[in-house]
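agent: user wants the structure for Glycerol kinase from Halohasta litchfieldiae. delegating to structure tool.
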Amino acid sequence: MSQDTYVGSVDQGTTGTRFMVFDHGGNVVANAYEKHEQIYPEPGWVEHDPMEIWENTKSVINTALDDAGLDAEQLEAIGITNQRETTIVWDAETGKPVHNALVWQDRRTTDRVEEIQEMGKVEDIREKTGLECDAYFSATKTEWILDNADPIKLQRSRPQDVRERAEEGELLMGTIDTWVIYNLTGNHITDVSNASRTMLYNIRELEWDDELLDLFNVPKAMVPEVRPSSDDETYGSTDADGFLGAEVPVAGALGDQQAALFGQTCFDAGDAKNTYGTGSFMLMNTGNEAVPSEHGLLTTIGFQRSGEPVQYALEGSIFITGAAIEWLEDMTLIEDAAESESLARSVDSTDGVYVVPAFAGLGAPHWDQRARGTIVGMTRGTRREHVVRATLESIAYQTKDVAEAMVEDADIDLASLRVDGGAVKNNFLCQLQSNIIGTEIVRPVVDETTALGSAYAAGLAVGYWDTVDELRNNWQIDRSFEVDEDANIEVNYDRWKDAVERSTDWARDE
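agent: tool returned. relaying tokens verbatim.
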């Protein structure tokens, strides 16, 4: 390994795309970011333009390398991490999408999900995939695109039905990792962690499930090859004649939350992390055992290294946390995210106000697709400071909902929780989280652990790092937050649960 070589990571998230370059110590040496448009065709519908995402991906890679004075040939490998469940269908010949991507937050297939539930398929889906039957996942999104995208116009022939072309293998589907890998290498590949989020993949048999593909009307010809998250054989390489001007192996991929688990070096059973991004996602490594949940969590694939067994995880998926702070900005209650901390500290309590940010329904452990955002407890004396504080508290309360379920399912005491993501820069939130969960909160020096995790996966695959012990040695604590024993949160948590109850089953006329 040369001292002047590095590993890159494409971090394609819900609101934007980042490219980061890491050295052998796990330090950031290059970083660039671009936002992309959020498209809301109808209430509850969320789309992204896949071509905009790909153009931004190329742009941030070039910008990061240029700004740091690096050459693409100095990259030993590239890893991919991505917003999960978001689904794209594209033409295998032209590489053009047949429709905008349907984002993980999109709820347009709620009626279809309820139809599947009424068919009595919920337990079968949960047993095979570890997932709840929900519009969150890729299965119904793929089905919707095939049924609703405009027919494809072919030269010198009639427009051809989208589903017909998919059955003939002329259309490909994938989550965002697959889309980025395809555009970087020309190969149609996903990893086990992303496959496990489609509701089409059997996480115990480690294969696409024919019965589920039939149930959701997804032709098997269009699904990608599934490979380890850290792949010694690599997924392919960039084109020397392409935008990078170099052949760089693409050797690792992880869904964003699994990437954060990997980046936080949660390699052992019982290790847990929570990532605070657009939503919050708490994962606990359960080792080689796929632990079924009795409390509304998801059983999912954590990661897999080449030649090794799959590592599973329990996950609590919270749809809206960081996005709730963005909502405060949209409503002009704060000027920027940093102001939320100072405003929350300026009052002693929420004065009885509770915000339930169920803008995209409620995820774990409630799983209510028809819940909607709710503010309760307001009086004439309620000020914006109370609403802002209540919004931050909602992030911590939702995490407690998940943490309690996780401890029950795994029968493991949660002694410490590693945290990452943009919101953990907020010290008020971290302390509040410690008090509400009743456990130590540990924030690492490098909080962009999602990008770091996929870089680790790619770097291990090509020998840039030899062992996971090297990665453990890289991990360093920035600050830990201990429980304030004087904090009185039990009564408040009970009232939180009352507020959640009032948000449920609201969107009945959509």
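agent: one observation worth passing along. The two ends are 57 Å apart (CA to CA).
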